[in-house]
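Tokens in:
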């Protein structure tokens, strides 16, 4: 597995070098590009990644963005621009906003719990899945407009959304939770 990842990364570097476009890319950028760009084009070309790769490289800088305001536990507001298709968890991490995300967006925790401050924006979101609701049940300070930041994906309808971070999170692995045998 390591060798296949390494050869894939070397291949990407060689392609960039031969085009005269070699630049440093962080692990997060590489992972996002690897998945979101390729999956975006599967609808049109189900078994071809070449066209998707070219489109991803060209369209990265021109991606449309929406305005999002994060309100931290102290009431301080941070206004950021978030590319369409990016989760609020990823956006927070890229902008040094303290939103934990212990499970890295795999729906296995509630540490990326956010509160959508305007019910009109909340109603524009997709309905939460059963898995998300199960994790939200574990969230600290749950409200009627609570969502997991990893499940709130930027789209045009959400331009101007405000999300508040709760005053605390529950991270069982860090907080010392020990499951009791039944």
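Residues out:
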């Amino acid at each position: 597995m390591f060798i296949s990842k390494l050869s894939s990364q070397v291949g990407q570097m060689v392609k960039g070098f031969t085009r005269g476009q070699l630049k440093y890319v962080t692990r997060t950028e590489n992972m996002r590009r690897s998945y979101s760009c390729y999956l975006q084009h599967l609808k049109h070309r189900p078994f071809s990644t070449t066209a998707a790769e070219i489109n991803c490289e060209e369209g990265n800088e021109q991606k449309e963005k929406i305005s999002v305001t994060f309100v931290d536990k102290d009431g301080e507001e941070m206004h950021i621009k978030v590319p369409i298709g990016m989760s609020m968890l990823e956006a927070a991490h890229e902008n040094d906003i303290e939103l934990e995300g212990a499970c890295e967006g795999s729906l296995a925790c509630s540490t990326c719990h956010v509160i959508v401050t305007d019910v009109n924006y909340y109603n524009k979101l997709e309905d939460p899945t059963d898995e998300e609701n199960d994790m939200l049940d574990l969230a600290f300070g749950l409200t009627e407009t609570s969502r997991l930041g990893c499940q709130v994906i930027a789209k045009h309808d959400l331009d101007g959304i405000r999300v508040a971070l709760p005053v605390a999170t529950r991270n069982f692995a860090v907080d010392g939770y020990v499951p009791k045998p039944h």
